[in-house]
Specification:
Distance between the termini: 33 Å
CATH architecture of the domain at 390-583: 3-Layer(aba) Sandwich
Number of helices: 21
Strand order of the largest sheet: 15-20-19-18-16-17
Structural class: alpha/beta
Bound molecules: beta-D-glucopyranose
Helix content: 25-40%
Number of strands: 31
Shape: globular
Length: 742
């Protein structure tokens, strides 16, 4: 079933983007395609088959895209059937021409790229978009990204990244949806729908690739590529569901992860790639490795050489080798040595060919190579307007003492800080084909809004602060009505290989903010960063704080919309912000322990030098208005297993402005055969309320929502008592008990 609905009720003038919301629908190869795949497979040599399992990157030089000569020859001989990082119509067209005109079997290439948060029009980083808690917004961002990417030659994106992480030291939290399994699963589905569009085969639909399978976000110490180990129960309850949700929403491909899990690298892990992914979940697309992760199994120490690593990979269920050239160099020999069966190779090739057929590449290999579309769609006014709307919906208001915000446009604003007139960092890491020059800086955004702002850098993101720079900043602040300070991280400080052991503001930025506070002027801190930061002094001393992540092309305009109240902030944190890195991992759905926290008892689970609570909890975010929740009302307090439970709550806008609120429902299973979290998100709804207005929000809980991996590792419910909690963030909740009977 397919539901069409139009979106985009923003005040920005913008034509409608039609988004199709598919009900979760797992990818199934079509019967028509199957016959063609079998016929083609029959004609292929072993080398040509392995070519379809091989993926190479092209490069990007100062003059534009380039390809290594050896790879081009490999395409000609059929030894390489897929490319990544190749984009722009002219370049893709030429490479596709080689594949379909100069090879024996004329099989078109797949063209992959990391289209993570936009192609040319850059949207907020995924963690930022997740803060919108708005699935239409998330889907729309992915849809626009796919429309642009497919207009520039691409047909495959390496997204969504759905790795749950509770560790802000891990730089890749910027690419995901944060710490929560439920929110992460809904976002995973929305992104798959956005990228793949109404159906594969449409000219603006691209293959999604769920990554990184699996558990990559749980690396020890938050250090990238590090070991992952945890019980299977914990893994299944908290880490696997978003991958499954993405697969069930139709994701056509899956990428393995660099880490090991339970001692077995994910890229050679049959339990993950075959038993869970294919047998349990019924995944029918293909699996690609992460970058050279087959080769890395030698470093992991589970294979003596690359040939052995390749055998581990294909026998575990890996279909395509990204950049490692292991399959290309060794797989034919492995077949001769009877370490790998032809059956296994054929199955992998079929999976790849099916999707090339589904995309329609055999009918028209150049279907994603249309210059007119490329010219018309990249960075169109419509896409920029969408990016601005998504960006402002991703901004979290963390603090607003004495209603410092919103600002008056007539106020004299001193804009200070290293990111105040910056563009390049604001498009963030993994910024596709985005250009910094197209990005609106905060200074430009303030001026576009008609405000008069003066600017001083104060300091750089990293390093110290000179006396002169500080003096200039303080002088500027002294002459202004209000100080807006833009501080944070550089784009390369979060993302891959960007773990940080300290997660405060780098360099002298905190000192700069504190000096500005001393001027006595109201200080509004605008954070621009890719991960939760630990900034207790800023939290205590700033007048107002906005978490703006890296918002992309329209960053400056979107922040100005919020600063001036043209948009009332509505986002909520998708990840807890710790007070100190020493609390990490700190996340909301912890267990009770046998000695739950008691401030008056030393012998309970706590720190002696700091509170257990984070600085700002999961789900937290303020608005320029206020909301009140009624007591939650279940439709019955005792109900039978298998029945649905409806819980109603009335939310009232008690302030003076219209605003949106994310009503959140959490659940606790009071007694289980295994320990259960003190709360788990199981529902949320974003609603708009005029000042003074009330609305009843109704949540429906199913048996699935109450289920978990029980003592015997079966998935299901255990009747008994449940606590239902409803409110505007994970720590401020109203509670009611219900009982489920057999
Ligand atoms: C990253 C992946 C990415 C791939 C291709 C790897 O280093 O881990 O997330 O998709 O490169 O660019």
């Amino acid at each position: 079933m397919r539901k069409q609905y139009s979106l985009f009720l923003s005040t920005i003038t913008c034509s409608l983007l039609i988004i199709s919301s598919l009900n979760a629908q797992i990818y199934r190869p079509s019967a028509a395609v199957e016959e063609r795949v079998i016929k083609l497979l029959d004609k292929m040599t072993l080398e040509e088959k392995i070519g379809q399992l091989t993926l190479y990157t092209t490069d990007w030089g100062s003059t534009g895209p380039t390809i290594r000569e050896g790879y081009k020859n490999d395409i000609r001989s059929g030894a390489c059937g897929n490319l990544f990082n190749s984009h722009t119509v002219g370049f893709v067209r030429e490479l596709q021409r080689v594949a379909v005109e100069e090879t024996r079997l004329k099989i078109p290439l797949l063209f992959g790229f990391d289209v993570i948060h936009g192609y040319k029009t850059i949207f907020p980083i995924p963690l930022g978009e997740a803060a919108s808690w708005d699935m239409e917004v998330v889907e729309r961002a992915a849809r626009v990204a796919a429309i642009e990417a497919t207009a520039a030659g691409l047909n495959w994106t390496y997204a969504p990244m759905v790795d749950i992480s509770r560790d802000p030291r891990w730089g890749r939290v910027m690419e995901g949806a944060g710490e929560d399994t439920y929110l992460g699963s809904r976002i995973a589905e929305a992104r798959v729908r956005g990228f793949q569009g109404k159906k594969l085969g449409d000219p603006d639909a691209m293959l999604a690739c769920v990554k990184h399978f699996a558990g990559y976000g749980a690396s020890f110490g938050g250090r990238d590529y590090n070991t992952v180990d945890m019980s299977e129960r914990y893994f299944r309850n908290y880490f696997l569901p978003p991958y499954e949700a993405a697969v069930r929403a139709g994701a056509a491909t899956v990428m393995t992860s660099f880490n090991d899990y339970d001692g077995i690298p994910a890229t050679g892990n049959k339990f993950l790639l075959t038993d869970i992914l294919r047998k349990e979940w019924g995944f029918r697309g293909f699996v690609v490795t992460d970058y050279t992760s087959i080769n890395e199994m030698v470093n992991h120490g589970v294979a003596a050489d690359e040939k052995g690593a390749g055998e581990l990979a294909i026998n575990a269920g890996v279909d395509m080798d990204m950049q490692g050239a292991v399959y290309q160099r060794f797989l034919a020999q492995s077949v001769k040595d009877k370490k790998v069966s032809m059956l296994q190779i054929d199955e992998a090739v079929r999976r790849v060919l099916r999707l090339k057929f589904e995309l329609g590449l055999f009918e028209d290999p150049y279907k994603f190579c249309d210059e007119n579309r490329q010219n018309a769609q990249l960075l169109s006014a419509e896409h920029r307007a969408a990016a601005r709307d998504v960006a402002r919906k991703s901004i979290v208001l963390l603090k607003n003492n004495q209603d410092v915000l919103p600002l008056k446009k007539s106020a004299k604003i001193a804009l200070i800080g290293p990111l105040g007139d910056n563009k390049s960092e604001l498009i963030g890491n993994w910024n596709g084909a985005g250009n910094a020059d197209d990005c609106v800086s905060l200074l430009e955004g303030l001026r576009n809004a008609g405000a008069s702002a003066t600017f001083a850098r104060g300091c750089e993101v990293e390093g110290g602060m000179s006396k002169d720079d500080l003096a200039a900043a303080v002088a500027l602040a002294a002459g202004a009505d209000v100080v807006v300070v833009a501080v944070g991280e550089k784009a390369m400080m979060s993302g891959e290989a960007a773990s940080r052991a300290e997660i405060g503001l780098p360099g002298a930025q905190s000192a700069l903010v504190l000096e500005l506070v001393k001027t006595g002027k109201p200080v509004v801190v605008v954070l621009m960063n890719g991960r939760p930061l630990a900034i207790p002094e800023i939290a205590d001393n700033a007048g107002a704080i906005l978490e703006t992540w890296w918002l992309g092309t329209e960053a400056g305009n979107a922040i100005a919309d919020v600063l001036f109240g043209d948009y009332n902030p509505s986002a909520k944190l998708p990840m807890s912000f710790p007070r100190s890195v020493g609390q990490v991992p700190v996340f909301y759905n912890e267990k009770s322990t046998g000695r739950p926290y008691d401030p008056n008892s030393k012998w309970t689970s706590k720190y002696i030098d700091m509170s257990n609570s984070p600085q700002w909890p999961f789900g937290f975010g303020l608005s320029y208005t206020t909301f009140q929740y009624s007591e939650p009302k279940p439709d019955k307090t005792t109900y039978k297993k298998g029945e649905r439970l409806r819980v109603a709550v009335t939310v009232t806008n008690t302030g003076k402005r219209a605003g949106e609120e994310v009503a959140q429902l959490y659940l606790r299973d009071m007694v289980g055969s295994v320990t259960r979290p003190v709360k788990e998100l199981k529902g949320f709804q974003k609603i708009m309320l005029e000042a003074g207005a009330s609305k009843e929000v109704v949540f429906t809980l199913t048996e699935q929502d109450m289920s978990f991996y029980r003592h015997d590792m079966t998935f299901g419910v255990e009747p008994g008592e449940f606590e239902i909690m409803v409110g505007g963030n994970s720590s401020d909740l109203k509670r009611v008990r219900v009982t489920m009977t057999e």
